[in-house]
Amino acid sequence: AQKVTQAQTEISVVEKEDVTLDCVYETRDTTYYLFWYKQPPSGELVFLIRRNSFDEQNEISGRYSWNFQKSTSSFNFTITASQVVDSAVYFCALTPNSGAGSYQLTFGKGTKLSVIP
Amino acid sequence: GAVVSQHPSWVICKSGTSVKIECRSLDFQATTMFWYRQFPKQSLMLMATSNEGSKATYEQGVEKDKFLINHASLTLSTLTVTSAHPEDSSFYICSARGRRTSGTSYNEQFFGPGTRLTVL
After folding, report:
1. How many CB atoms lie within 10 A of CB B39?
2. Residues 6 or more apart from B27 whose CB is under 8 A from it?
3. For B60-105, what is each residue's pLDDT tens digit?
4. Cβ of A14: how many Cβ atoms within 10 Å?
5. Is the dihedral of CA A80, A85, A88, A90 positive or negative?
6. B56 DSSP assignment
7. CB contact under 8 A, A47 and B111
8. Minimum Cα–Cα distance from A98: chain B residue
9. Which one of B44, B109, B112 has the shortest CB-CB distance to A103?
């Protein structure tokens, strides 16, 4: 069974602060994908990143960065210099990339980020 | 990236009626489609997975006779909520994965914008 835990239910930061959203996962699969999605108030899921379990390199995309640590089963997401437009619910998700259930996403409960101007 | 559309974006219906939600892949062939339900302030819960031309596989606790899924073509899947009741009010999201017209596969799911169902 797979499980994704986002322990932070809600976070509030003041604009321009950095913020890290935590994600811890559990899986018995040896190969898997990890994802982060953003869900603004409109409801549409916005894809942010996909990480293959083979690839533990951290990634930076503009103000976004991701820290994947297989040893601790964590895939944390940091937004630097946060902006009001970053206010949304962020979901971490996991899927095996082979076998039964492959591509079926297991989502965490989400972290609601509020960026205060 | 690939585009998935959903129609309608919102619907209000009376209790006891049936509602059909369409999910279309616009520029790729969706060999697998997924239907999720999201209650307010909660996460997405997978309801069912359907492969084109096959019967859908429902997750535990999801009534297949109430949530009818049809995936008859490589670009269209429909979810019909039969005899809807107020407790079925939710945000329904579909996603799809499949292959480009060139034949190469997409490894990720692409999500539709969601349909907000309100049952009075």
Report:
1. 12
2. B2, B3, B101
3. 999 999 999 998 899 999 999 999 999 999 999 999 988 887 878 7
4. 10
5. negative
6. P
7. yes
8. B107
9. B109
Alpha-carbon distance of A94 to A1, in angstroms, equals 11
Maximum CA extent, chain A: 46
Q: How confident is the model over A9-62, as pLDDT tens digits?
A: 999 999 999 999 999 999 998 889 999 999 999 999 999 999 999 888 888 899
Report residue B104: phi and psi, to 5°. -75, 150
Length of chain B: 120
Q: Inter-chain contact B114–A44, Cβ cutoff 8 Å?
A: yes
In this prediction, residues A94-101 reach a mean pLDDT of 75
- Selecting from B46, B108, B112 the residue whose C-beta is nearest the C-beta of A50 gives B108
Contacts of B43 in chain A (CB under 8 A): 91, 107-110
> What would the pLDDT profile of A64-90 be if each residue is shown by its tens digit?
999 999 999 999 999 999 999 999 999
